[in-house]
Amino acid sequence: MVDSPATQRTPVERAVVSERWLALGALGLVAAACWAWIVPMANDMYGDMTGASAWMMTASWDGTHLALLFAMWTAMMAGMMLPSAAPTLLVYGMVARRDDAAAAPLRIHLFAGGYLVMWTAFSAVATAVQWAFTSTGVLSPMMEIQAPAVAGALLVVAGLYQLTPLKRACLSACQSPAAFLVKHWRAGGAGAFRLGIVHGWYCLGCCWALMLLLFAGGVMKLTVIAGLAAFLLVEKLMPPMAQGGRLSGALLVAFGLYMAAGL
């Protein structure tokens, strides 16, 4: 069907739409590549552990094992968090095209790169936490918390953080891409990278405590990973005035206390 003259898109509008799909496609490819490694590894871990997760079967945490564990966390964070960053990235792309159409594609990638820098840093911290939990016997070789009381305590911490003003402030920045860009806008490629880092910082402030659920439920349990990724996406797509964090926080605290009590 051919658009009528009144509804035909201008060249600029067609470029914006095309760029939007390119940005979504790039995000989708990166996220799909991450899930393509995580899903077989998670399935193999609860199978015979001779495939994608075979490297985990070692008693020594040498440099190679730590590097692979860090890569696993990085892929998992990218696969989980990139989809939730899509709204802000798309709004940034539209603004960047109006500012400098020729440089917009590069600046979009720089923004995404800055965002991933923050989650890569978080992955390094998560790797260190997992190493500490494993070396002290808190975490089993199957990457699961061995004591229900500890798992319950992690849920309580995550739930309490959901109720804090800091959580709401960070979530608001993630739920309102236009307002975020107006407040933090920087021009140029360096500005795009900085914006990505700032957005990643807010996103990290919004979601870090919920990542404790990976330890509480099983770091490599696919249902936990997929369920948490879906929840984070829905939480960020909710209207800024919605109080979903309070409900989820109360539920997490209640369930955490239930687990800690051994009921």
Folded structure, characterized:
The protein is mainly α and 263 residues long. It has one domain. It is 75% helix and 0% strand. The protein is built from 10 helices and no strands. It has helices at residues 11-45, 63-99, 104-135, 148-162, 165-175, 177-184, 188-207, 212-217, 222-237, 244-260. The radius of gyration is 20 Å and the shape is globular.
Number of helices: 10
Low-confidence stretches: 1-13
Strand content: under 5%
The total of beta strands comes to: 0
Query: How many structural domains in the coordinates?
Result: 1
Major sheet attributes: none
Identify the notable features of this structure and list them briefly.
263 residues; mainly alpha; 10 helices; 75% helix; 0% strand; globular; disordered N terminus
Summarize, please.
The chain is mostly helical and 263 residues long.
Write the layout of secondary structure elements.
Blueprint (H helix, E strand, L loop, with lengths): L10 H35 L17 H37 L4 H32 L12 H15 L2 H11 L1 H8 L3 H20 L4 H6 L4 H16 L6 H17 L3
Helix pairs in contact: 1-2, 2-3, 2-6, 2-9, 3-7, 4-10, 5-7
